[in-house]
Amino acid sequence: MEKTNAVPGDYVELSLVNRDYQGVFLESPENEKGIVLLKLDSGYNIGFVKKEVMEVKVLKKAEEKIEELEIKKNSEKPNVAMIITGGTIAARLNPSKGGVDWLDNPASLFKFYPEIFKLVNVSKVEVPFMKASEDMDFKDWQKIARVAVKLLNDTNVKGIIITHGTDFLHYTSAALSFFLKDLNKPVVLTYSQRSIDRASSDANLNLQCSALAAISDIAEVMLVGHASENDDFCFAMPGAKVRKLHTSRRDAFKVVNGKPFAKIFTDKVINVSEYNQRKKGKIKADTSFEEKVALVKIYPGQNPEILDYYLKKKYKGIVLEMSGLGHAPGKRARNSWISKLKEVQKRGLIVCATSQCINGRVDPLVYSNGRELLETGIIYLEDMLSETALVKLGWILGHKEWAKNRDAVKAKMLENIVGEISDRLEN
């Protein structure tokens, strides 16, 4: 390879004998100095043997460090607040790693997507932490809720936008649905599947649609993101009825057993279903939570003795994600769950049931297996999503006035509190 003035972060053209490649020039690992690394426009990294590379030509120099961005506010535009928590939407390429790192400040986000300011003033920005969603737990949900309450009770703020990682976003949206009581304004969670410095990033449309959702009349916890692979419009989806259904598509999130609140384009909001409307007054956070809850997936031949582990570790509640209508190995199975379920519930463990199916609801009365399981005392949770059920169970058991009474826990789990249970199922 001829000598090149390319440095990590430069956009280059790399020439081999019979083919050229374009992408971002990456720093080679210490133990692989004979390798030239490139991040292609597709987002994938590719390595070349250095001696086979004929030339590396710089097409565009790497951007210099982003300076603090000065945003001019327009008094005629509504004010929204933003909570930045991490995730791909708050990350950009680190040329030395070939992966993404957190943005150094909010200005970095706004620099790439200033279109959000065409619609609103981002009057306040809070960064309680920067984490990937898989690193969060209930304490992070509580922290977000407390920050959200402060912003929602500011009369100069019309709504809030929360940027978040995708993988466990639906747990956070479910938690905030229960934590934020008597919601007065829109709470919008949004994301991107691709980092903001990629041409194919979905952050631009998601942020613009989130801005419109935040100033709408939809006083709900909602998730706003691409409705399709195209940059045409977004859905505003109920926080307790949404699930990530694809690992990488831009329209990864879908409403399950329900409808979106609205379709949101870059210039308008079209209502699709009923929702609570914005109102005056202040709200409070109800963030009580019992962390000793678990979600367990049932599989064929599974030994029910796994429940002994949760009793030993002093767990208070468990959600069993069961087959189809709500079944686990019954009396005719080699490893029957019937007697063990009776035992653990007598010893105080709350056991709830959801379905492994994406659509539909559990119904233990169709088959004899289901009836036998129902008689053990487990609580069948209609069409509630497993993730939402886990969050709701932790929230309910976090309230001592409910947790000390099994019947009270059952009644609250079957109460439709934030739209987590559907009276009738939607396609």
Whole-angstrom Rg:
25 Å
Task: Give me the CATH architecture of the largest domain, please.
Answer: 3-Layer(aba) Sandwich
List low-confidence stretches.
65-69
Strand arrangement across the biggest beta sheet = 9-6-10-12-13-14-17-18
Mean pLDDT comes to 90
Assigned CATH superfamily of the largest domain: L-asparaginase, N-terminal domain
- Shape annotation: globular
Structural class: alpha/beta
As an assembly, this protein is single chain
Count of strand segments = 23
At CATH level 3, the topology of the largest domain is Rossmann fold
Number of domains: 3
- Helix percent reads 10-25%
Strand residues, percent? 15-25%
Largest sheet: 8 strands, mixed
Alpha carbon gap, first and last residue: 58 Å
What is the element layout, followed by pairings?
Layout lengths: L10 E5 L4 E7 L8 E6 L4 E5 L5 E6 L18 E6 L6 E4 L4 E4 L3 H7 L8 E6 L11 H15 L7 E4 L5 H11 E2 L5 E4 L12 H12 L6 E6 L7 E5 L3 E3 L8 E3 L6 E3 L4 E3 L12 E2 L7 E5 L8 H7 L4 E6 L15 H9 L3 E6 L12 H7 L4 E2 L5 H12 L2 H4 L2 H8 L14
Parallel strand pairs: 6-9, 6-10, 10-12, 12-13, 20-21, 21-22, 22-23
Antiparallel strand pairs: 1-2, 1-5, 2-3, 3-4, 7-8, 11-19, 13-14, 14-17, 15-16, 17-18
Helix pairs in contact: 2-3, 3-8
What does this structure look like?
This protein has helices spanning 106-112, 138-152, 169-179, 203-214, 306-312, 338-346, 368-374, 386-397, 400-403, 406-413, and strands at residues 11-15, 20-26, 35-40, 45-49, 55-60, 79-84, 91-94, 99-102, 121-126, 160-163, 180-181, 187-190, 221-226, 234-238, 242-244, 253-255, 262-264, 269-271, 284-285, 293-297, 317-322, 350-355, 379-380. It has 427 residues and is of the alpha/beta class. The chain has 3 domains: 11-60, SH3 type barrels; 79-285, 3-Layer(aba) Sandwich (Rossmann fold); 293-413, 3-Layer(aba) Sandwich (Rossmann fold), CATH 3.40.50. It has an 8-stranded mixed sheet, with helices on both faces. Strands 4-3-2-1-5 form a 5-stranded antiparallel sheet, with no helix packed on it. The protein is globular and about 75 Å long.
